[in-house]
Specification:
This protein has helices at 11-19, 26-37, 45-56, 65-72, 81-91, 102-107, and strands at residues 23-24, 59-60, 97-99, 111-113. By secondary structure, the chain is mainly α. The longest helix is centred in the N-terminal third of the chain and has 12 residues, at 26-37.
Length: 114
């Protein structure tokens, strides 16, 4: 989304993004910063989040961190701590999670493919 490449998103994902408020788990901020630090992306996390907040109203979810961690215990299908926390954040209220991650799509019933 930051790069403006929404043409690759599915019709369903675009409709959901246009209809609903858009939230990300706080762990997404950390994962983006990690990707910047290992040079997988070239823009720092806070710049990406700020830009998307201004352009599309992106918000950072404020669910209780301890509740998210407790929920993450349920997702042993992945060893990736970022994915576990992202899915847990969504799963607490059975929120829809838009992703291209095939493992998440396979294992989280409320996920929608990009």
């Amino acid at each position: 989304m930051y790069a403006g490449r929404i043409d690759g998103f599915s019709q369903q994902a675009r409709e959901l993004i246009n209809i609903h408020d858009i939230y990300i788990s706080p762990i997404v901020r950390l994962e983006l910063q990690y990707l910047f630090e290992i040079q997988r992306i070239v823009v720092e996390a806070n710049e990406i989040i700020s830009d998307l907040s201004n352009r599309i109203g992106l918000q950072i979810c404020d669910k209780n961190f301890n509740v998210i961690v407790s929920e993450a215990f349920n997702f042993s299908w992945t060893c990736d701590p970022f994915d576990r926390m992202i899915v847990a954040n969504a799963a607490i209220n059975q929120n829809i999670l838009v992703t291209r991650d095939q493992m998440i799509l396979k294992n989280y019933n409320h996920s929608i493919g990009i």
